[in-house]
Amino acid sequence: MRRGFSGRWGTTFSPVLLAPAVLSLLLFLFVGPSTAWRPWPRTRLNGSDPLFDGSKKYEGSSEFVHLRYHMGPVLTNNITVHTIWYGSWARAQKKIIRGFITSISAVGSKHPSVSGWWRTVQLYTDQTGANISRTVRLGEEKNDRFYSHGKALTRLSIQSVIKSAVTARTKPLPVNPKSGLYLLLTSEDVYVQDFCDNVCGFHYFTFPSIVGYTLPYAWVGNSAKLCPGVCAYPFSVPNYMPGFKPVKSPNGDIGVDGMISVIAHEIAELATNPLVNAWYAGPDPSFPVEIADLCEGIYGTGGGGSYTGQMLEGGDGATYNMNGIRRRFLVQWVWNHVVSYCTGPNALDQ
Asked: Where, by residue number, does the polypeptide cross the bilayer (predicted)?
């Protein structure tokens, strides 16, 4: 057990001596939420990082990756996703995102399916050997169309938005710390701290000193106006990648189709590491490398580096790699700790 943690200037603080509100703030600033550096791929291998180097027998595989279980809780109960729609959202945009979430547990979707992708996440267990739940369902929703906390949010003010949703006088979101996930989605005219600076979304847990409860949550932003080349790749391509052409998005909305993979990334990591003390690689929980981080930019067989891997193309020319309920999606793969490489339902050897 760590008895203290170091600040930016090397000072060691004792949590026992800190007031709860101050401790929560320091944990957030120094440990920070798990960040999705998504979904555009690395243009070169990080030669100084042993987590991503080594023999690549399979997509994303490395003999140096040691993803371990650190005895924290994972989500073994049926998972309910409570959504906060912050800002201005069109009905069609909401339908795409709802369609993805409900597809995670769908039975009978055409192969390769979103539910097939989730089966890799289900392989992860807690200390009793119980697997992560097969069931992921939509919960209650809250609309914040009047930007109650403004159009520029900090990481801490995101928790205040969640507090407003769970303590609202009318139709508050239910509080369910054991199996609820709280998904804050910001519209294309909202800027969040560090958004577009390689950050497309992150997950963490709320502080009782701010929200009143410890709740696993994720934030994902719509990058359509601010940085589609960063957060909606490969439906949009950044300027520093000349010669790369964007592909057609499967649901006709570049911003929202780009969000889908980031949402998937965060839900997978929330399920396996909700309090940042369960499944991750690396020696330091302050900077955990989680099951989706290990497979960033990989959407199919052969993926790695600047190549997305083998994807599918529909009759309408749209690019995708898995089927949901009456929709298609492009979702990154996740790390399979049983075989020690990235896997997905559209793998050519399945």
From this structure: none
